[in-house]
């Protein structure tokens, strides 16, 4: 009886250790339709452009931007547009090196803008947020011409 209980406990601990609270790698993110940003590049940019078009025409839409740290840990940014405002959620709870600020934050914002930085990379920001903060969504290696 004791051996069975010990075995069951070990199996449960192993299964719990394998779960990663919804985290998934970039291959799975691409399959799910996420806009992915990693050291390897940006994928599903066309889906992001479609989302931007839907926002500009007041059409409801939702996307997930999933970026990956150098170590491969995912950071999720969910954008839910209701035709007027964008519900924004930032989740870095799976970032092993995220420090003390790990967790999920959310805000309500009004628009997404792009800027070309000094390195010639196009950056997209979500702005007009209730917490008076602009958030960087993603960075495109080369700005569109």
Automatic annotation (TrEMBL):
Signal sequence annotation: 1-23
Top-level taxon in the UniProt lineage: Bacteria
Family matches, as PROSITE patterns: PROKAR_LIPOPROTEIN (PS51257)
Keywords: Signal
One Pfam family cited in the UniProt record for this chain: DUF4362
InterPro entries in the record: DUF4362
This protein's name: DUF4362 domain-containing protein
The species this protein was found in: Lysinibacillus contaminans
Organism classification: Bacteria, Bacillati, Bacillota, Bacilli, Bacillales
């Amino acid at each position: 009886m004791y051996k069975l209980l010990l075995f069951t406990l070990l199996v449960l601990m192993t299964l719990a250790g394998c779960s990663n609270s919804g985290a998934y790698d970039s291959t799975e993110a691409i399959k799910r339709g996420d806009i992915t940003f990693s050291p390897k590049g940006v994928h599903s940019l066309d889906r992001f452009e479609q989302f931007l078009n839907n926002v500009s025409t007041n059409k409801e839409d939702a996307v997930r931007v999933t970026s990956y740290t150098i170590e491969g840990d995912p950071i999720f940014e969910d954008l839910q547009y209701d035709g007027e405002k964008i519900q924004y959620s930032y989740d870095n709870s799976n970032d092993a090196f995220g420090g003390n600020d790990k967790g999920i934050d959310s805000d309500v914002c009004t628009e997404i803008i792009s800027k070309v930085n000094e390195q010639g990379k196009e950056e997209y920001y979500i702005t007009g947020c209730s917490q008076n903060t602009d958030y960087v969504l993603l960075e495109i290696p080369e700005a569109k011409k």
